[in-house]
Amino acid sequence: MKRLSCQEVLDQLWEYLDDDARSELRTAIDGHLANCSHCQLEVDSIQHTIHLYQAKENVSVPVHLSEKLTNALNSAYKESGQSRD
Ligand SMILES: [Zn+2]
């Protein structure tokens, strides 16, 4: 099996973390990670970031809050439009 360098692992990390990653790529990177704590840390921090992202996307803005925001934006638009015209 082809051995990857740290740079090659880092270059392909996003592809590796993708659910559709090729199994040979996964195997190659898994093999590298087993022996390289530096790349393990890198993967950990990226996975952590991804989880934070996913957690944020799942949070929906409460309806009453988004209505308030829309109203505030609308009145702000109106006011700026009136003062300019
Ligand atoms: Zn490495």
Itemize the secondary structure elements and their pairings:
Elements: H1 6-11, H2 13-17, H3 23-33, H4 37-58, H5 63-84
This protein binds zinc ion.
Zinc ion binds at residues 6, 9, 32, 36, 38-39.
Structure description:
This protein has a domain of about 55 residues. The chain starts with 5 loop residues before the first helix and ends with a helix. The radius of gyration is 23 Å and the shape is rod-shaped. It has about 80 residues and is an all-alpha fold. Helix content is about 80%, strand content about 0%. The mean pLDDT is about 80. The structure holds zinc ion.
Q: How far from one another are the termini?
A: 71 Å
Bound molecules: zinc ion
Strand content: under 5%
Helix percent reads: over 70%
Mean pLDDT: 81
Q: How would you sum up the global shape? A: rod-shaped
Quick description:
78% of the residues lie in helices and 0% in strands. It is mainly α.
Main attributes of the structure:
85 residues, binds zinc ion, mainly alpha, single chain, 78% helix, rod-shaped
